[in-house]
Automatic annotation (TrEMBL):
Example GO biological process: riboflavin biosynthetic process
InterPro entries, per database record: CMP_dCMP_dom (IPR002125), Cytidine_deaminase-like (IPR016193), DHFR-like_dom_sf (IPR024072), Eubact_RibD (IPR004794), NADAR (IPR012816), RibD_C (IPR011549), RibDG_C (IPR002734), Riboflavin_Biosynth_HTPR (IPR050765)
Lineage: Eukaryota, Viridiplantae, Streptophyta, Embryophyta, Tracheophyta
Entry annotated with the keyword Membrane: no
PROSITE patterns: CYT_DCMP_DEAMINASES_2
Enzyme Commission designation: 1.1.1.193
Listed GO MF terms: 5-amino-6-(5-phosphoribosylamino)uracil reductase activity; diaminohydroxyphosphoribosylaminopyrimidine deaminase activity; hydrolase activity, hydrolyzing N-glycosyl compounds; NADP binding
Record's catalysed reaction(s): 5-amino-6-(5-phospho-D-ribosylamino)uracil + H2O = 5,6-diaminouracil + D-ribose 5-phosphate; 2,5-diamino-6-hydroxy-4-(5-phosphoribosylamino)-pyrimidine + H2O = 2,5,6-triamino-4-hydroxypyrimidine + D-ribose 5-phosphate
Pfam families referenced in this protein's UniProt entry, alphabetically: NADAR, RibD_C
Listed name of the protein: 5-amino-6-(5-phosphoribosylamino)uracil reductase
Amino acid sequence: MALAVGASYFSPIILKPRATFANAVTCSGGNHALEAALVRRAAELADKSAGFTSPHPNVGCLVVSGGGGGDVVGEGYLYAQGTKPAEVQAVEAAGERCRGGTAFLNLEPGDCHGDHTAVSALVQAGITRAVVGMRHPLLHLRGNAIRELRGQGLQVDVFGEDLQSKIIEEAQKACRIVNAPLVYRSASRVPFSVLKYAMTLDGKIAASSGHAAWISSKKSRSRVFELRGRSDAIVVGGNTVRLDNPRLTARHGGGHLPMRIVMTQTLDLPEEAHLWDISEVSTIVVTQRGARKSFQKYLASKGVEVVEFDILNPRDVMEYFYDRGYLSILWECGGALTASAISSGVIHKVFAFVAPKIIGGKNAPSPVGELGMVEMSQALDLIDVCYEQVGPDMLVSGFLQPIPDLTPVIPSVDETSAIDPTVTPYDSNIIFFYKTWDPYGAFSNFSPHPIQMLDENGNYATWSTVEHCYQAHKFVGVDNPLARACVEDIKSAKSPEEAARMGRSLQRQHPDLVRSDWESVKIDVMYRALKSKFSIYPHLNNMLLSTTGSVLVEASPHDLFWGGGREGEGLNYLGRLLMQLRSELLGESSTTSESTILAA
């Protein structure tokens, strides 16, 4: 057990301040304690983006100069998918002091796009050694960057493989914790799920009347807002909506806003609820197939998405949100749904805020409902328990399931394929793509590839990603200062996720600012953006051509226009446009009009 004050969301481990890392290490790699401290610092850097963008791997990098100085001369962390890699930031900060230096990374670089950007940055900067806290959890990326770096002549030491000791093991654990969502996603094919609740000292989450505001202190509630901001989505049950009418906002003044998810079998929900206001953030209601069809139509009229399941249970729901690309889920539900989620094996970590209050009540609800256990020996034990005082409350946290240890995993898929050419990991007539970390993640509009497009004045404008370009063009050409401000705000968004959130939110809040012809021109805007992207980057062009003979499907289970849908019911326009572009590049459709292909 560990006592921690101010511990990070994922970790009970306290990471040392930067000042302790000067003169930390030489290229000989002989001091495990100092090298472990540097990798832990990289993990601390990686955690800096939490609460602002999601989902993406948490990557941090720092560069230590060579030549006997051993000073930390450059640091960086990945702000969001589609933004500058941590390794590039670190070497840019270090400049010429990289020569002969060592790079320390909490996570193996993940080249999802065929760019080799992170690897190239380290090589071209003159780094001679890389120390990696852990291999990449995703199988199609695992070992690739390590092999490339070694192929370029760098010495690469991987914790748990090339470097082994008790302190190295602890540092590697810190690396796994800071990327727990990605690790769990890879190992269990469900998002990393955290259960949070506040209870009195006698174990009640509400009075017998159901009143629950407020059990915990204001400081504890601020911590809850932080937990929300670090999550892709928040789950509540129908009873919570009926009794508490929550907003489920992060309330941190900007940055990433988690999706709100309501799980209800009966769909017996009030017509008026804060969660039906989607002006700032969307809400998804998951329910049993066929439940209250009239109310489903009502929610749809409010812009609330409804997803039906044949049998509603937490595991099926989490597998669905895994398919949607979610990495981390925060559960803030009542005892019945909590017990069902725990029994389904989808809860991985618990945060329990215990207030120094006693309320009593034989019928007052407790945080976890019936689990079917009759003896104390059946109780579930938390792992890596951490205690932290938050104002007058005590925060007890720990893992219900151990973090999967994915190292060492050798040979990787690529290494196996090299040994046996008959093993081809991605041999399929249908190629699915969605998130940037997928094998064909470069096809995503969120991939980090700036493009150039002609604006309404005939001048070339540069956009950070295709998503920036697409979202901004909803407001291009509208004769209104506010519309022009929308374009500039989206264009300057720090990440494609933020550009998408801004564009969708502004479209909902100010439909009068959206160009009148948007529905008729949006396909053409997307196609021109894709054409720019694949013409600027030869390796992307080659990647697209390599899929000849395969059907391309954007595997979004919820976007029925651009994606393929949950059960293939989507129109898959993004996949269609990529296939059309592929045909054009191959010269196969020079006389075929765009309208003919899109109507197929």
